[in-house]
Design brief:
This protein is mainly α. The protein is built from 8 helices and 3 strands. β1 (231-243) and β2 form a beta hairpin.
Length: 317
């Protein structure tokens, strides 16, 4: 209960920081749109558009965070932990689409650069950089383990770097007089957004497809489990993630003809290995005697089981 209370308090703190960051970002959007139109700067308007998605991303992250605090029930036996993954999927997809739009507009303006007011561009972009960096650092804590919060953090850090690029474009225009630097800066911003968005998108899809966590080697895991006294084999193995830091496993464990008390001791030893070495804190283990089921390490769930035999002990997110 104390751990759950601590989690709720931490989530409330992140929720407040997300709300404050969204408020600052929304105010910045208004300033950048006005300045971008005044200076005819694509870099500022591009950053303002990206900031609009940041507000949406922060709102989605806030809502998803609230959902994850809801308890599990018969209709959602895993609870709402995947809400954060869905929010990260929407946010990262939005980042990729925005980057493609930026590339198109940058190309169009590079061919025919409009006149840009470098003074307005430099000053406003400098102010935006400070605000974006401050809001990003505001929600940095907790972003390493939570993909939802990380997607929002990447949004804001992408803005910080993009506004820094706009500052560089303003200085370059002041020094050279060529307005094309504005379009080039926007294209570089687009590349940064695309790189960050694609990385998060790939990870969210991997989780939603029940992929094995990338830092877990199933062969090594099986070898470790076979070192437990009493374990003769492992098959029908499934390892997946509910969220980035919430992992689960199901497996059939081959043991001898032992008592329930002895099998409980084997299971406890396995649980310790899974938790300490692989960060897996939720495991469903089915103890079996020899020749109980076909000895396949990875079960074909679409295949028909033998007559009278079911695949008990498996879970699915």
């Amino acid at each position: 209960m104390a751990g759950h209370t601590h989690l709720n308090e931490g989530a409330r703190g992140i929720s407040v920081r997300l709300g404050v960051a969204a408020g600052f970002t929304l105010a910045l959007v208004a300033v950048e749109v006005a300045a971008g139109l005044l200076a005819d700067s694509l870099a500022l308007l591009t950053d303002a558009a990206h900031n609009v998605t940041d507000v949406i991303a922060l709102g989605l992250s806030w809502y998803a965070l609230r959902l994850t605090l809801r308890p599990a029930h018969p209709g959602k036996t895993f609870g709402y932990h995947r809400a954060g993954i869905l929010a990260a999927l929407v946010n990262s997809t939005g980042l990729v689409l925005i980057a493609l739009g930026i590339f198109y507009e940058s190309y169009r303006r590079f061919l025919n650069p409009p006149e840009v007011d470098p003074a307005v561009l430099t000053v406003v972009a400098g102010v935006a950089f400070v605000i974006n960096l401050a809001t990003a650092l505001m929600i940095r804590r907790g972003s390493h383990d939570d993909l939802n919060i990380r997607s929002a953090f990447i949004h804001l850090m992408g803005d910080a770097f993009s506004t820094l690029g706009a500052v560089a474009a303003g200085v370059a225009i002041l020094l050279t007089g060529w307005s094309g630097w504005d379009a080039l800066a926007s294209a570089l911003i687009g590349l940064l957004i695309l790189w960050n968005g694609w990385g998060i998108l790939r990870e969210t899809v991997h989780i939603l497809l029940e992929g094995t966590p990338q830092d877990i080697d199933p062969d090594r895991l099986v070898a470790d489990l076979k070192q437990v006294e009493g374990v003769h084999g492992v098959h029908d193995l499934h390892v997946w993630s509910i969220t980035r830091n919430l992992r689960t496993l199901s497996a059939h464990i081959l043991v001898g003809d032992i008592s329930v008390r002895d099998s409980a001791a084997v299971q406890a030893a396995i649980d310790r290995i899974l938790c300490d070495r692989y960060g897996i804190r939720h495991a469903t283990l089915q103890m079996e005697c020899e020749n109980c089921l076909p000895d396949q390490l990875y079960c074909d769930m679409a295949a028909e089981p033998p007559d009278g035999v079911g695949h008990g002990g498996n879970g699915a997110a």
